[in-house]
Backbone:
C-alpha cells in the first residue's frame, strides 16, 4: 500500500477518532521523556498491565524507542525511564511469560504466553481439510479459526497476548455463581473476538474442563451433503462428524470415564442403526453390549458415512449429555461466528414445476437454517436445557453476515470486545519487532500513530505493521 494511501486512511477515520487524534498530537509535540501512560489515560484506557523492572539507561528524545517496561504499566503514580531491555534477548525478558494459560491471572495482563495448539486441534486448517476431498493447493478450504492461523503464520510463533478481556471472560466463565454464565461476545471486526474464544477454549481444556468448540458456525450452514428426514428437516453428516471428531481428539482420555446419563442416548446406542454401523466398523462383531460411555456415543456417530441421521443425533445428544454432566464436571460450549446460525444457508434443492399450459421449469429452493437439525441445535442462546454448562458465543463481523442482524438472546450477558488500547498496541509492536516483522523497537509517537491508523484493530495492526515497513515510510 502506498504511503499516501495509508495516510488517507488515517484522515478518513479522523471523524471517529476525535479524542484519540488530539491525544496523538499532544504526544507528538511533547518534549523529553513523556510517558505512554499519559496517552493511555487520555483515551480512558481500561487495561491494567503489570509493572516490569529493567536496568537504567534513559533516552533523551521523545522519538527514541520506548522500552517494554514503559509500555507495560498503567499505574499513573509510577515514573519509568525510557530504556532498552537489560539483556540481549530483549522482549523475551519482559513481555513473554513462561506460564501456561491455566496459571495466568490479572498480573499477567498484556503479556504473551505460549498457546498449547495440541489442546485445540479443530482451530487449525489441516484438521478441517481431513473431512473433504483434496483440492488444488491454491483452492484449499480454510477451516478452523482463521484469525489464530493468520497470527501464527505471520509471527512464526504460537504465542498470544493475554488481554484484559481474556482475564474478564475467564473470570466470568469460572464464576461459582448459581446462575451459570452465558456470554454473547460482540464487537467490531478485528477487535479479537475469535482469538478470545479460542483462548478460553484452550484455557478451559488446560484446566480439565470438557469443552465443545465450533470455530466457524457458518460451516454448519454450508458444505458437504444433506439428507432429508421424514419430518421435512435435514441432516448434515460432515458437519456433525467434524464436531464429534474434534471433541474426541481433544478429550479422548476423559470420555471413556463418563457414563451416559440420558435414557435416549442408551436407546440410540442399542438401536439397530447404531448396531449396524458399529458392527460394520468392527467387522460384524456383536458390540452393542456394555457400550454406555460418552466415548461410545461419540464413536457411534463416527462409525459410518452412510447414516447422516445417526451422526447428527449423536452430536445433538452429546450436547445434552454434557449438560447432564455439568453439575459434576465443568463444561464449556463455545461457538464462534454464532450469528451465521440466524442468517441463511448455502444448501438448496432443485424444484420442478409444470404449470398447466406452460413449459415446465426448475428453480433452486434454499434450505432455511431452522430446517437444518444440527445448526438449529447449536442456537445455544435460545436453549433452556443446558443446566450448568458455561456458554460462550461470538458474532462474526467479517461481512458474510449483516452486522445489524438480530440474534435472539434469552438471558445471556453481552460483552462488547474492546479495540486494542495504546498499551496493547505497544506490546504488540514490541512483540512483532521481536519476531522480525518490525525492524526497530517502536517509539511513543509510532505507537500512537499505529493505533490511530488501525483504529485499535488487532488484525490491521499485524498486517499494516508489515506493509508500512515494506514501503519504507520510516513510520516503523
Residues:
Amino acid at each position: 500500500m502506498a504511503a499516501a494511501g495509508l495516510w488517507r486512511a488515517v484522515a478518513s477515520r479522523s471523524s471517529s477518532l476525535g479524542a484519540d487524534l488530539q491525544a496523538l498530537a499532544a504526544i507528538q509535540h511533547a518534549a523529553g521523556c513523556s510517558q505512554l501512560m499519559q496517552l493511555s489515560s487520555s483515551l480512558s484506557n481500561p487495561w491494567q498491565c503489570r509493572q516490569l523492572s529493567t536496568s537504567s539507561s534513559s533516552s533523551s528524545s521523545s522519538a527514541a524507542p520506548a522500552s517494554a517496561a514503559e509500555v507495560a504499566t498503567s499505574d499513573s503514580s509510577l515514573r519509568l525511564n525510557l530504556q532498552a531491555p537489560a539483556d540481549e534477548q530483549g522482549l523475551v525478558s519482559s513481555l513473554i511469560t513462561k506460564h501456561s494459560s491455566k496459571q495466568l491471572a490479572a498480573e499477567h495482563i498484556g503479556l504473551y504466553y505460549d498457546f498449547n495448539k495440541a489442546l485445540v486441534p479443530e482451530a487449525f486448517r489441516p484438521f478441517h481439510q481431513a473431512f473433504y476431498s483434496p483440492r488444488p493447493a491454491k483452492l484449499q478450504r480454510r477451516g478452523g479459526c482463521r484469525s489464530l492461523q493468520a497470527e501464527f503464520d505471520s509471527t512464526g510463533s504460537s504465542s498470544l497476548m493475554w488481554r484484559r478481556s481474556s482475564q474478564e471472560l475467564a473470570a466470568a466463565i469460572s464464576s461459582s455463581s448459581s446462575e451459570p454464565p452465558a456470554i454473547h461476545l460482540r464487537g467490531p471486526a478485528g477487535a479479537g473476538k475469535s482469538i478470545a474464544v479460542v483462548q478460553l477454549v484452550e484455557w478451559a481444556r488446560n484446566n480439565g474442563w470438557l469443552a465443545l468448540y465450533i470455530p466457524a458456525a457458518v460451516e454448519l450452514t454450508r458444505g458437504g451433503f444433506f439428507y432429508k428426514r421424514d419430518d421435512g428437516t435435514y441432516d448434515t453428516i460432515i458437519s456433525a462428524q467434524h464436531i464429534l471428531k474434534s471433541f474426541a481428539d481433544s478429550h479422548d482420555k476423559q470420555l471413556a470415564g463418563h457414563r451416559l446419563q440420558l435414557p435416549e442416548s442408551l436407546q440410540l446406542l442399542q438401536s439397530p442403526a447404531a448396531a449396524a454401523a458399529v458392527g460394520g466398523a468392527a467387522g460384524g462383531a456383536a458390540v452393542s453390549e456394555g457400550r454406555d460411555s460418552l466415548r461410545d456415543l461419540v464413536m457411534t456417530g463416527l462409525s459410518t458415512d452412510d447414516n447422516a441421521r445417526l451422526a447428527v443425533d449423536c452430536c445433538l445428544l452429546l450436547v445434552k449429555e454434557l449438560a447432564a454432566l455439568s453439575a459434576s464436571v465443568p463444561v464449556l460450549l463455545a461457538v464462534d461466528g454464532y450469528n451465521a446460525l440466524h442468517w441463511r444457508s448455502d444448501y438448496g434443492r432443485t424444484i420442478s414445476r409444470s404449470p398447466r399450459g406452460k413449459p415446465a421449469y426448475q428453480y433452486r429452493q434454499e434450505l432455511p437454517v431452522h430446517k437444518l437439525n444440527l445448526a438449529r441445535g447449536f442456537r445455544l442462546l435460545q436453549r433452556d436445557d443446558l443446566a450448568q454448562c458455561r456458554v460462550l458465543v461470538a458474532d462474526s463481523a467479517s461481512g458474510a453476515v449483516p452486522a445489524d442482524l438480530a440474534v435472539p438472546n434469552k438471558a445471556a450477558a453481552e460483552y462488547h470486545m474492546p479495540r486494542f488500547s495504546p498499551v496493547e498496541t505497544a506490546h504488540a509492536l514490541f512483540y512483532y519487532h521481536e519476531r522480525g516483522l518490525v525492524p526497530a523497537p517502536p517509539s511513543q509517537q509510532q505507537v500512537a500513530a499505529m493505533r490511530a491508523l488501525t483504529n485499535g484493530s488487532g488484525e490491521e495492526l499485524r498486517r499494516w505493521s508489515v506493509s508500512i515497513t515494506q514501503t519504507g515510510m520510516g513510520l516503523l
Remarks:
- The mean pLDDT is 78.
- The chain has two domains: 1-94+420-476, 211-416.
- The CA atoms of residues 109 and 381 lie 29 Å apart.
- The longest strand covers residues 331-336.
